[in-house]
From TrEMBL:
GO terms for biological process: glycolipid biosynthetic process. One of its GO terms (cellular component) is plasma membrane. SUPFAM superfamilies: NAD(P)-binding Rossmann-fold domains. InterPro entries: NAD(P)-bd_dom_sf, Saccharopine_DH-like_oxidrdct, Sacchrp_dh_NADP-bd. This is Putative membrane protein. Transmembrane segments: none annotated. Residues 22-154 form the Saccharopine dehydrogenase NADP binding domain.
């Protein structure tokens, strides 16, 4: 599938003049440290297209913590001190690099100043936000600026939403090769996953629930499957939302809601728009967790659904949200151990069907903890892909998705360097 787009003559490409290919902002956060160690190891043997070493830096607001991190890395890396509350320091940072990686969340609270700086200065940007309303807000404010400056803003480059977004892209590509047609329906199912949550992830979820709990207009936004489709004629086809237990008679399994579906589905539909609706204007897509068959699977499905509903309800009410955050949920800066990250994995299945009822099944497999071990690699490779593989002549400035901006190039990187595989299962 073709994911190239013409660029405006007004866009700037200052990448040749900049000191760094990549700057990791928020490097001392939990996922930031994991990403820094991965980049240090990966880039110790990597070269750019001219055969030179790839230059990069770690950044954040606390110089002492950055120095402590720097001392643990396997390759030399520069330090940049910048603060989200200091626009001048952000501009000084973003003007020095081709791509910024941001791990500073919750993005609704802390993300806008950096997006603005990147948009103003023509600097590419990737993050791991799962906050769809944050992306919508930033698109509304900075799309025109990013388009003019040439800044490619690519949100959701972690477990949400690269496996879903590139999984659908891969499935559609293979369907087109096999049938000469695309799938008008794709169901994504999480077959298995093992990993933990960090305090940062919990903080981001709490921020979203706080927003939707206190603002009815935000709840309406979150419920819209086409929230990120910013064209005036967005599709109106009704999308399935698996928010309660269901039985999948075709695969003989119970289904439960998948907590990341609310961001992943929006990213996939945004990709469809940015690719000129190559998936079709009536394309339908949903996500769910696979449970087992029989009574055990049914009980698991109902338990998972009840747990998610109870958690969401509690997090939307201020007293219970504060109680959970203080006494129950992981604290900021905490997360799964190194061993848990290494022993984690995920197995995602996608079931596609064309209008002629031809079927194709694919899988996306990750060999590390999805939220951190795999996410850090996906995030880093997305940044390097923008810096090294995707020219601004081919993909211009604006707000993109992983699949629409990087497509096959990112697929290749993830399979080669991130422990992620995309395969056709059968058809």
């Amino acid at each position: 599938m073709d994911n190239n787009t013409d660029t405006s003559s007004m866009q700037q490409n200052n990448s040749e003049k900049r000191s760094y290919a990549v700057v990791l902002y928020g490097a001392t956060s939990f996922v930031g440290k994991i990403t820094a160690h991965y980049l240090a190891e990966f880039l110790s043997n990597a070269k750019d297209k001219n055969g030179a070493n790839v230059t990069w830096a770690i950044a954040g607001r606390d110089e002492e913590k950055l120095q402590q991190l720097q001392s643990t890395l396997t390759s030399n890396v520069d330090i940049i001190v910048a603060n989200s509350n200091d626009a001048a320091s952000l501009d000084q940072m973003t003007k020095q690099t081709q791509v910024i990686i941001s791990t500073v969340g919750p993005y609704l609270k802390y993300g806008e100043p950096l997006i603005k700086s990147c948009a103003d200065n023509g600097t590419d940007y990737v993050d791991l936000t799962g906050e769809a309303i944050f992306i919508k807000d930033m698109m509304d404010k900075y799309q025109d600026t990013a388009t003019q400056s040439g800044a490619r803003i690519v949100n959701s480059c972690g477990f949400d939403s690269i496996p879903s977004d590139l999984g659908v892209y891969f499935t559609q590509t293979k369907a087109e090769e096999k049938f000469g047609d695309i799938c008008d329906v794709i169901h994504m199912r999480v077959k298995a996953a093992k990993g933990g949550l960090s305090g940062g992830t919990i903080a981001s979820m709490a921020t979203i629930f706080e927003e939707v709990g206190e603002d009815k207009s935000r709840r309406k936004q979150v419920a819209n499957p086409y929230l990120l489709n910013d064209d005036k004629d967005a599709p109106s086809v009704r999308q399935d939302n698996i928010n309660k237990p269901q039985y999948d008679s075709e695969h003989k399994r119970w289904l439960a809601p998948f907590v990341m579906a609310s961001i992943n589905t929006r990213i996939v539909h945004r990709t469809n728009q940015l690719l000129g609706y190559e998936y079709g204007r009536d394309f339908k897509y949903d996500e769910a967790m696979w449970m087992k068959d029989g009574v055990k699977g049914q009980l698991s499905s109902y338990a998972m659904s009840a747990g998610l509903f109870g958690f969401a309800t509690a997090m939307m009410i201020k007293p219970s949200r504060e109680l959970l955050s203080k006494h129950v949920l992981p604290k900021s800066g905490s997360g799964p151990s190194k061993e848990e990250q290494e022993n984690g994995y995920f197995d995602i299945r996608l079931f596609g069907q064309t209008a002629k009822k031809e079927t194709i099944n694919t899988k996306v497999i990750g060999d590390k903890d999805p939220g951190y071990g795999s996410t850090s690699r996906m995030l880093a490779q997305a940044a390097l892909c923008l810096a090294q593989d995707v020219s601004k002549k081919d993909v211009g400035g604006g707000f993109w998705t992983p699949a629409s901006a990087m497509g096959d190039k990112l697929l290749t990187r993830l399979e080669s360097h991130a422990g992620i595989s995309f395969k056709v299962v059968n058809s």
